[in-house]
Write a structure and sequence with these properties.
Layout lengths: L14 E5 L4 H17 L2 E9 L10 H26 L5 E7 L1 H11 L3 E7 L9 H8 L8 E4 L5 H7 L1
Parallel strand pairs: 1-2, 1-4, 2-3, 4-5
Helix pairs in contact: 1-2, 1-5
């Protein structure tokens, strides 16, 4: 299903979406997307997804666990926002959701018609490119926006040269 994208219409800006966690490859995606957003006059959107499966079956402590997960999400997003400030003259939008990563990525894209590109980075370890890259890569032929996968081994200078 094709979603209407409005990022090039008057009053809209092209958004680059990055799914945030505390992995090294996430930093590669952030650097690339921040530089692309800055160079094209776009917006960087940082999405942190709290896995809601972690809370199931824990009656009584569920609210405490949610609060702790939310605090962790805010901590990670603050660190990534500070990283963006080091490399680009933009202020990212931040979004925190609960659910599955792949599901929340698709839902956010469906809700925000300015999101034009999903930027991920591939892991460099022997276990493969990473679970999100793998799961979304399988659906890339029917995915609602282009997916850019940044090689995880690229340096900041390498990324600056191509973004």
């Amino acid at each position: 299903m094709a979603l209407k994208r409005s990022s090039l219409e008057a009053g809209h800006r092209r958004k680059f979406l990055v799914v945030v966690d505390d992995t090294a490859e996430c930093d590669r995606a952030v650097v690339f997307a921040a530089r692309r957003a800055e160079h094209t006059g776009g917006v960087l959107v940082l999405l942190y997804v709290i896995d809601d499966a972690d809370f199931r079956g824990f009656l009584g402590v569920e609210q405490v666990m949610r609060a702790e997960a939310r605090a962790e999400a805010e901590r990670v997003l603050a660190a990534v926002t500070a990283r963006v400030a080091e490399i680009a003259a933009i202020l990212p939008e931040t979004v925190v959701r609960e659910g599955t990563r792949a599901g929340e990525v698709v839902r956010l894209i469906e809700e925000d018609e300015d999101i034009a590109v999903l930027v991920l980075a591939a892991g460099t370890g022997s276990e493969g490119p990473g679970p999100l890259v793998t799961s979304l890569g399988r659906a890339s032929g029917t995915f609602p926006v282009p997916i850019t996968i940044v090689p995880g081994h690229l340096s900041d200078a390498d990324i600056a040269a191509i973004a």
